Each structure stands twice: as C-alpha cells, then as structure tokens.
Amino acid sequence: MEQIDTAVIGGGVVGLAAAAAIAARGHSVCVLEREPRPGMATSTHNSQVIHAGMYYPAGSLKARHCVRGARMLYEYCARHGVPHTRCGKLIVAQSADDVNELEKIRAKGEVNGVEGLRLVDRAFVAEREPHIRAHSALFSPNTGILSAEALVQALARQCREVDAFILPGSPVIAADVHPEGVTLRTPAETIHARAVVNAAGLYCDEVSVLLGGEAFTVYPCRGEYVELVPAKRPLVNALVYPLPHAHGHSLGVHLTKTVFGNVTLGPTVRFQARKDDYEDGRYAVEDYLEPARELLPALTLDDLRLGGSGIRPKLHPPAEPFADFRIGRDTRCARLVKRRA
Asked: How many angstroms separate the CA atoms of 311 and 224, rounded?
C-alpha cells in the first residue's frame, strides 16, 4: 500500500493547482485522475475566457474568487508561458431600453471590485468591432482569453517540478475512512492518504458519497458551440456578449475569438442526466443563426460550422438561478476537503 500525505481526486485545473500548492509546502501528494490524461473534461471544454467577475452576487465566493482569481491567472499565464491576452469584452445593448441592464451589471461589478468597467457608445463599439450591431455596450477591459489546454499542461509541469505525482486512468472505485486517514482503491493500486481533496468536478458528488462525506447533487449542464468558417474570422476581433438571459443560467450565445484566431459562438445551456454525453441530440447549426445575427447581422448559414461541446457541473437544478461554490472541510468526513463548482 502506498502512503501519502494528501490525495487529490480530479486532475483538472482545480485539482492540479491544489496539488502543486500542497506539494510546494513540503507534503507528499498524488493526483488521481479518471481520464487518460489531466484536464480532459470541463477544464478544456469551455469558452477559454478569463472572466472579470461582474455577474455574480456581491459577497459570494464566485464573485470573490473570480475577481481575485483573474488577477492571479494573468500573472500565472505570464510567468509560465501560457498563451493569453487581455483583449477586453463588450456586453452589447441593442436599444436604449437595454441600457439600464448594462448599468445594473456595471454596478454589480464595481461592488465586486471589478476595475475599469464603463458604458460606451456605438462609435466606441464600431471602432473595436466594426461588424457588430449595437446601440451601446458595457466595456470590460480586464476580461481576456487563454489557451485552456496550455494552462492544464503548465499546471501539470508545475506538479512534476514539486514531486506531486499525477496518476492518469486512476478512478477511485472504493474508499475506507479511518481515524488516521483514508484508504483509496483504484483499479491498479491502493493508496493510504492522511487527507483527501475532492476536486472531481462533474463527479464530486459521487466521490463525496464514496468517502462518507456530505450528500449533494451535481447537475450536468451541457454547453454546445459552433464556429465561424475561417474566411469569416476577421468579422470578430475579441469578445462580444449579449445581455445575459433573464433565467440566470446563461450569458447568452456570445462571440469569442480564441488565442489561436478561431471564433466560437456559444455556449448553449442544456441540463441533462448523463455526465459524459457530449454529442447525443446536439443542436443543429441552423439553431445558432438568428441569435448570432443579433450581434453579427451579416452572417449566413454558410458562415457557420459545428464546434465542440462541454459539460458544466452545476450545484442547482434548472428551476433555480444560482448556487455558490462550496469550499472547505467536509462536516461528515474530517479527512476530506471539498471544492464544488
């Protein structure tokens, strides 16, 4: 049986970052990742945006961690050579009636500590994004983009540099909790850890039950994307968002120019039962055309092609608009530290 100070379950961005930080303090650490390599799920199936933090309720963990985390992430990317750019974002209003909504977002962002938010007119939008239709917009200069895959690779390198061992293809299939620690079993080995960090993302509810921790439910929420064909990529220069949907689950089908120059449109929102279903019943490319033309009126169906998809772990069902992060020591299993999205 292998003996270790801390086992981190989940090799996404959160798990890798936690493992690197713990190992840097002199503790022995291993990362148990169910997939063949780190970061294959939510960490790399997303819009790859560094958000500034203007959408979340004041005082929430999401607001606090987003604002502080964005600053830290820019520093990390620069220090570790992760491709990124602080390109800025426009949240677009299509009429004078929408300006009050932009004001509300700005006010919320300023309460959260987001810097540089300002309302801009059509001329400002046209200078940055000449092909976008807008009455006015809220400009967030500190929103940016990065390469999610490169971020995962940088964190994995950092883990190796501080001797945090990453064990891919190692799902936890059983666990026994003892006064002195937790015994974890994978298909290949048994590991005894003094403490466990639950960073299992979509599967963190199942891991919690397995370790005798608090019971909760993860609601898988799939987001799908289309892309602009290469010839149409010059239509978008950075990040352009519509006003968020009223039900609170989505920021709307937005335009993202990635660090590699392609332009994605999405994501959609679809709560579903399975945590590994990225493709069944996907929306047709035609379904994106009208929402996209609200921002880019010149688009035609031939300008779009099917893109990727991702699944977000939500802590609230479709009927509820918001659930905050839950981070801390588990109340039922003293050896377990939880991080839930």
From this structure: 9
How far apart, in Å, are the Cα atoms of 211 and each of 176, 333, 336? 7, 7, 8
- Tell how far CA 142 is from the center of its chain: 17
- The CATH number of 2-44+149-216+323-340 is 3.50.50.60
For the entire predicted model, the pTM comes to 0.95
CA torsion through residues 151, 153, 154, 159, sign: positive
Q: Who contacts 105 (Cβ-Cβ below 8 Å, separation ≥6)?
A: 54, 55, 91, 138, 244
Strand pairing report for 29-32 and 2-9: parallel
Amino acid of residue 330: D
Q: Where are the domains of the chain?
A: 2-44+149-216+323-340, 87-143+219-314
Tokens of 87: 């390109």
Concatenating the DSSP letter of every residue in 207-223 gives: HHHHTT------EEEEE
Nearest to 290 by CA among 103, 148, 133: 133
pLDDT in tens, 84-113: 999 999 999 999 999 999 999 999 999 999
Q: Which pLDDT tens digit goes with each residue over 264-299?
A: 999 999 999 999 999 999 999 999 999 999 999 999
Say if strands 174-178 and 164-167 run parallel, antiparallel, or are unpaired.
Answer: unpaired
Strand segments (E) across 249-331: 254-257, 263-266, 270-271, 304-314, 326-329
C-alpha 159/C-alpha 24 separation (Å) is 9
Class of domain 87-143+219-314: alpha beta
**pLDDT at residue 251 is higher than 70:** no
